[in-house]
Amino acid sequence: MNSALPHKCDVLVVGAGFAGLAAVAKILADDPNADVTVIERASDVGGTWRDNTYPGCACDVPTSLYSFSFAPSPKWSHTFARQPELFDYLRSVVDRLNLRDRIVTDCELLSADWSETDRRWTVETSRGATSVRVLVAATGALSTPKIPDVPGIDTFGGTVFHSATWNHEHDLTGERVAVIGTGASAVQFVPEIVDKAQRLTVFQRTPAWVIPRLDRTIGRVERTLYEKVPAAHRAVRGVIYGYREAYVTVLADNPWMLPAVKVFAKANLKRQVKNPVKRAALTPDYAPGCKRLLLSNDWLPTLDRSDVDLVTSGLTSVTENGVVDASGRNHEVDTIIFATGFTPTEPPVSHLLRGNDGRTLAEHWGGSPQAHLGTTVAGFPNLFLMYGPNTNLGHSSIVYMLESQANYVVSALNEMKDRRIAAVEVNESAQRQHNSWVDSELDGTVWNAGGCSSWYLDANGRNSTMWPTYTFRFRNKTREFDVSNYRIVSDTLESDNEVVSA
């Protein structure tokens, strides 16, 4: 990796996970001589697949689709890849595309301020400052763990950690363990640690709908076929893409079909949980898909075990030797593991970016993130967000969305180069129009009308997370940079050369 941060560069990408690598790979594929640098706060690439190393960590989208279209791998051992394979894959992409010299590791973004005078971003990092023309924030939506502020947590005499920062040096063998949360991470690691622990106490705020994960081992013959006949692998990817897109037909376009999913999920629950009390506690009262559907074959059977306690009254405080639920009962435990997710509707990077009026992105958003095509924000010239507002999916691969955004960034860079444009800033009217369309499309979908309160909703109650429809519609919208929706400033510092596009 490159250890030197340049004092000046044309394009700076922040983050070297799937999002950042998609951006830099697309930029360099279009122009191998592009002046682009990537900064990464950790010592290696990989993003969430570097950081999340908890037992059982795996992808819940088929890996043939959850990978770059421009860097397929015939080596996956399972249809749903495990974390070590995904981490190795991202590092192999960096090597295959010769990206290492573009990446500055151990370099954390501290702040970025737009200068209307210079028409550049002044970026402060843990390795010094740099001046950049275009800033691409690819820090991810699931990068900062969320640990609730529980009274008494500082007094606990045992071990505490978040699933996203798993403490591998701590041995859970024979311990009484409390798990706070029952989301996508918990369903993966709880079955992995249950046989080590003496007893598990799982705190559930809201039950989730669980359906089987149709995972299988990919044999040597099949892997050899994909290696020798890449078209066969592309065909598999196309089939998977097609059937995952069909989920939108149920989740968004035809919610009247959801009862069929509910019947299937209830049958799965009845088959895997024999304890009637636990089964009742694990039965959601909202439509499937309102919260993230969880894929697991062993989560429900694990909760059905006699050495696992399911607490549904909520965590209220922590004592020196245990955790206290809402009924006042103190559960004595040795270790507390938080599986409480992340902060997707208030990404930490939004507090570090200051636009042309001096206010941060977080201040502009006021708790409700909005962007044009999930990528650009009025008041923040030459800023492109990867995995921005309303680009998350409930049915398909975020990698497809990231590649679409990367195409949009490349198109914008080419437009700026061809027309000698110094700065582009999306018009507020275009941003409002896009978000109005998103809101109207989300109305009636299970994510808005499914009867639950999910992390898809922001502090203002708006769904600022989900893309409301088919991913190919996003791909079409981001195929070319829509310069007519932007205020553009010509490549000169005289203000009378500004060109404003309606």
Write the layout of secondary structure elements.
Elements: E1 8-14, H1 18-30, E2 36-39, H2 48-51, H3 83-96, E3 103-104, E4 109-115, E5 120-125, E6 128-137, E7 159-162, E8 176-180, H4 186-193, E9 199-203, E10 210-211, H5 220-228, H6 230-253, H7 258-272, H8 276-281, E11 294-295, H9 299-303, E12 308-311, E13 315-318, E14 322-325, E15 330-332, E16 335-338, E17 353-354, H10 361-365, E18 383-385, H11 398-418, E19 421-426, H12 428-442, H13 446-449, H14 471-477, E20 486-490, E21 498-500
Parallel strand pairs: 1-2, 1-6, 2-3, 4-17, 6-18, 7-16, 8-9, 8-16, 9-12, 10-11
Antiparallel strand pairs: 4-5, 5-6, 13-14, 14-15, 19-20, 20-21
Explain this structure to me?
Helices cover 30% and strands 18% of the residues. It has 502 residues and is of the alpha/beta class. The chain has two domains: 8-144 and 344-500, FAD/NAD(P)-binding domain (3-Layer(bba) Sandwich); 153-214 and 241-338, FAD/NAD(P)-binding domain. Strands 1, 2, 3, 4, 5, 6, 17 and 18 form an eight-stranded mixed beta sheet that branches. α11 (398-418) packs parallel to α14. It is globular.
Report the sheet-strand fraction.
15-25%
Uncertain runs are 494-502
Total DSSP E strands: 21
Q: Overall 3D geometry? A: globular
Backbone CA Rg: 23 Å
Instruction: Quote the average pLDDT.
Output: 94
Provide the structure class.
alpha/beta
Tally of helical segments: 14
Instruction: Give the end-to-end Cα distance, rounded to a whole number of Å.
Output: 43 Å
CATH topology of the largest domain: FAD/NAD(P)-binding domain
CATH class of the largest domain: Alpha Beta
> Tell me about the biggest sheet?
8 strands, mixed
Query: How many domain regions?
Result: 2
Gross CATH architecture of the largest domain: 3-Layer(bba) Sandwich
Helicity, in percent?
25-40%
What name goes with the CATH superfamily of the largest domain?
FAD/NAD(P)-binding domain
